[in-house]
Structures are given as structure tokens and as C-alpha cells.
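Record type: monomer structure entry
Structure origin: computed from sequence
Chain ID: A
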Amino acid sequence: MSGKEFAEREDSEALSISRGVAKKPLVNPDIEAVLAKRRRKEIGVDELFSGILNGNRTALAQGITLVESSLPEHQNKAQELIQKCLPHSGNSLRIGITGSPGAGKSSFIEAFGVYLIEEHKKKLAVLAIDPTSQRTKGSILGDKTRMNELSSREEAFIRPSPSGASLGGVAQKTRESILLCEAAGYSVILIETVGVGQSETAVHEMTDFFLLLMLAGAGDELQGIKRGIMEMCDGMAITKCDGQNVTKALAARSEYQSALHLFPATPYKWEPRVIATSSVTKEGLPDVWKMIAEFESLVKQNAWFFQNRKEQQKNWMESSIHNALLLDFYNHPAIKKELPLAKNAVLEGKESPFAAAARLLKLFAGATSNN
């Protein structure tokens, strides 16, 4: 090989580009097969029921998701599941917990829940009712993420649910969720509401004991709001009784205890108590449970507990009728077609809200009577 040929060959090889390793496609060509494999299969009602009865938390979560779904096909399955769980329900103590924002509801529930698990060997379910985002319609606060210790316990089940537009911040399907939790073997069910400022009647009507959490030194103008709630509560807990706040908390306990004596006596012969508590030092937690246990013993002896449960069943039926009628009304094709026109007529001042509502109801009644 001549010197010229060698130089040309060297230049050619120097400029050549190695192909290297073949570049893999950015998208897995088998992505559909992978997704199909990962996609969760829809579990049947019998399988869900079996899992719930065996205390499987995943099955319980899936059952509550089914109950909360507004899809008609899911609702039929949900009612079938509830019917299966019904004979296995009713064996828990249902405790409603409310209080103004900042009162420390989540901290109290976590500390109280851990106490019940460790000291009394309870299985605990927490139905934490989150405020609903008006944009995403999902939960805002995410209480489960704020109860790290409790959510890690095998004996605990925490379910945050968006409150929607339901009264008092209580999720529409909370009642059914209670039944599923009871069928799963949870002996204590805590229902946390959004907080004072809305009517708490709904949570009062679905629980056995109603606990009001109060924060010392919140201001007289705020305390006035709570008068109606104080009349309904079976017990009060002054929170954050630790550090420099101990003196205020103890003073508040005395003031509220005196105030409770001014309210009319309860029909079930129970005198509400006020207990100072701390989620940090665990102060007062045993006293809160002792109060609840004594309340349960009393109302079971005088039969009010069972009478109240029967009254709740009747209220739940009436509420279910109300919700079903609303659902049927807004999902009816004739209403779906006419409702936007009626809203525009009201907004433009062409029709009064009352006349528009009456016209829509008449339309609905006529459409359903023809079917």
C-alpha cells in the first residue's frame, strides 16, 4: 500500500462514526400488554364481602370506594355489598368528633387511637371527613397523611373522604362506610367532621357518643358559635393542655363545666363532662376513654343506646330516600335538558327562582308518571 493510499484510508476511518448500541424506543412496544396486566381487575361483590369479613383492609377500602361511587352500576353492587354486611354490623361504638379548625382534631385522634390500640387492644377505624375542593372535588386536608403513627398500625384503618356538599361536612356515604367497617371487625369507629361552623346534626345522628374538642382562649365571639354544638355534645375535651397553655386549658375546663350545668338535662340521664387533654403528653386520654365507657354502660342499662340506634336507622332510611330522589331528579333526561335553560332564565331575570323550581318539579313529576 502506497503512502497516499494509507493516508486516505486513515482519514476515512478517522471520520467514520461507530453505530454503537442500538437505541431503544422511548415507549415500550408492549405497553398495552403491561398496562393490561397491571390494570386492577374489578372484584366481585362476593369476593369483596369475603375480604371485608376477614378484616382485609384493602378489600374494605375497595368496598368503601364502591359505596362512594355515583355510577349506577356501582351503586347496585354497593347496595348488594351493604346488604351482605348488614347482619355483621352494629357491634362497634361510634364516636363523633368535632371542633373548630385548629383545635387539634387530627392530633387528638391519632394520640387517642394509639392509646386505645395499645392499652385496650381495640381495632380502630377512622372516617376522616375532609373539606371538599371546589375545583377538584377531592379532599383538601388529607388527614391520613397527618396521622402517620396511627396509619402505620395494623389495628387501625383510616379513610379520608371528601365531604362534598353534604350537611355538616359529613360525607353522604359515611353511614354505609360505618357498616362496612363494623363488618370488618372494627370495635371503635371515630368519625371526624370538618369542624364547627356548619350544622353538626348529621354526625350527631349517626354516632353513639358526640365529643366536642375545644381550644382554650379562642375568643368569646367564637365560643358563641358553639352554643348549639355544646347542647348536643356528650363530652368535651380541652386540647393542647401542655407547656405554657396548661393554666389556660385548666381554666377553660372549669368554665365550660360550669356552662354545661346550665343546659337542660339529657333524656338519657347523662351529665356531660369536660376533660383537659394533650396529644403531646397524652394527658387526659385515659379519662376521655373512661368517660365514654361510663356513658356506654349507662345508656345501655337504661336502653337509650338501643332506642337511639333504631331512631338512627329510621333517619338513615329517610335520608336515603331524599338522596335517591335528588339523584333521580338531576339524572333525568328531561331535567338535564331543561335545567340549563331554567338557570339562564333565572339569571336573566325572566323567571323567578321559585317559578323555575316549580316548573322543573312539575316536569319531573309528569315525566316519571308517564314511565
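Annotation 1: The CA atoms of residues 112 and 285 lie 6 Å apart.
Annotation 2: Residues 40-88 form a domain with the Single alpha-helices involved in coiled-coils or other helix-helix interfaces fold (CATH 1.20.5.170).
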